[in-house]
Design goal:
Strand order of the largest sheet: 4-15-14-13-12-11
Strand content: 15-25%
Radius of gyration: 21 Å
Structural class: alpha/beta
Shape: globular
Number of strands: 17
Largest sheet: 6 strands, parallel
Oligomer: single chain
Length: 405
């Protein structure tokens, strides 16, 4: 079940404002989706995700198949009850994880043969198996199994070489055949949720167009753009981002997979993308890098050792403001209470100390802040689209991020 309502469009770009209704709830778009690989967003409780107004999160088909396994998932009736998340969930197909196994896997027309990275068991994933797993997970949005077309080959004979157009075509055409098989299995199982097709084609615009047209003819409820952020130069990713999303059907949601930086998200919105996901907020948090309105901050730098300021004086997250406030709650000055005698949030000095000591609270607070930043950025984007001021917002965003912390 999926309903997508287009609420607003931006006259100066391809940006649009929408509302996505799924079995487990409503999602306002454009939206960023926190990544919960093993049934949890790393270091962040479901309560914290609700406090920062996360509307939809991801689960990973491959990893949940490995652990805890489908018998456990079936016992709980799916992933929502297992991880105690009562809002929508999107699951990827597992294709990227299988592809990334490198020498441990062998791709054929039937599917992918591989050795389990957990215990070495010989396993097989096909489009049908992927859909069967996702049906057991009961995710609101399932993804077709596709072959992720790399920018640089990982095959032993051609490793490190840029993927040729012939190689990208063969990969794209197999993903189209797998899309048909995924769709047929989804219907056979009478899955009550939604299935997205995935546009492939590497860095070749004609292949992207061909993939797009054939997927649209299959009439999926929504579409994703895959095979970006897979090692290609940034200008190549931006070229594909400028080419593909706005050519997908206007009345269906568009999802850009695995992207990216705050700048990538704003550019993606401008090119017509509705949905984003990326591990960057939590991964960078664990490595001591924070996203702020005024640029990125590396907490490990010695200059933060005595700094009493919060990470971002405009941020209302728990780490910065000392209280849990929704991402869509207007800033009432709580983020500046450190300078006004209030309780306030945690100082840069304290977060620097936690990082230096390896205390687990450090990456927990870091992850809360970075995810709040991403979700709040999308809240501000939606507000700008509602107000008809996205162009001005986009310029201000760039100026603020360039200012530096």
């Amino acid at each position: 079940m999926l309903q997508f309502d287009l609420l607003q469009t931006d006259p100066s770009s391809h940006a649009r404002r929408g509302r996505l209704t799924l079995n487990q709830g409503v999602v306002q778009t454009p939206i960023f989706m926190p990544v919960g690989t093993y049934g949890t967003v790393k270091g962040v409780t479901p309560r914290s995700l609700e406090d920062m107004d996360a509307q939809i999160i991801l689960g990973n088909t491959f990893h949940l198949w490995m652990r805890p396994g489908l018998d456990v998932m079936a016992q709980f009736g799916g992933l929502h009850q297992f991880e105690k998340w009562n809002k929508p969930i999107l699951t990827d197909s597992g294709g990227f994880q299988v592809w990334s196994l490198g020498a441990m896997r062998r791709i054929t027309e039937d599917g992918v043969h591989f050795s389990s990275p957990v215990n070495g068991d010989k396993l097989f994933m096909s489009p049908e198996v992927s859909i069967q797993i996702q049906t057991t997970l009961n995710s609101d949005i399932a993804m077709q199994l596709d072959e992720c077309t790399p920018y640089l080959s990982v095959e032993p004979k051609t490793k490190g070489q840029i993927t040729t157009e012939d190689e990208a075509r063969a990969s794209m055409e197999m993903s189209l055949r797998w899309a048909q098989r995924s769709q047929a299995e989804f219907a056979r199982l009478e899955n009550p949720n939604a299935l997205f097709g995935i546009v492939q084609g590497g860095m070749f615009e004609d292949l992207r167009q061909e993939s797009l047209e054939q997927l649209v003819a299959m009439d999926f409820p929504g579409y994703a753009v895959g095979g970006v952020s897979v090692g290609e130069p940034k200008d190549e990713m931006l070229r594909i981002m400028a080419h593909t999303p706005h050519r997908l059907p206007a009345h269906k949601p568009r999802y850009l997979m695995g992207v990216g930086t705050p700048e990538d998200l704003i550019e993606g919105v401008a090119q017509g993308v509705d949905m984003f996901d990326c591990v960057m907020p939590t991964r960078n948090a664990r490595n001591g890098t924070f996203f702020t309105r005024y640029g990125d901050l590396k907490i490990r730098n010695a200059r933060h050792k005595m700094d009493q300021r919060p990470l971002d004086e405009t941020c209302t997250c728990y780490a910065c403001a000392g209280s849990a406030t929704h991402a869509n709650t207007p800033d009432t000055g709580a983020g500046r209470s450190w300078a006004q005698g209030g309780r306030g949030g945690f100082s840069r000095a304290y977060l620097h100390h936690l990082d230096r000591c390896g205390e687990m609270l450090g990456p927990m607070l870091s992850s809360i802040h970075n995810l709040h930043y991403y979700l709040n950025l999308m809240t501000e984007v939606r507000a700008a689209l509602d107000a008809g001021t996205f162009g001005a917002f986009r310029q201000q965003f760039k100026a603020d991020r360039a200012r530096g912390v």
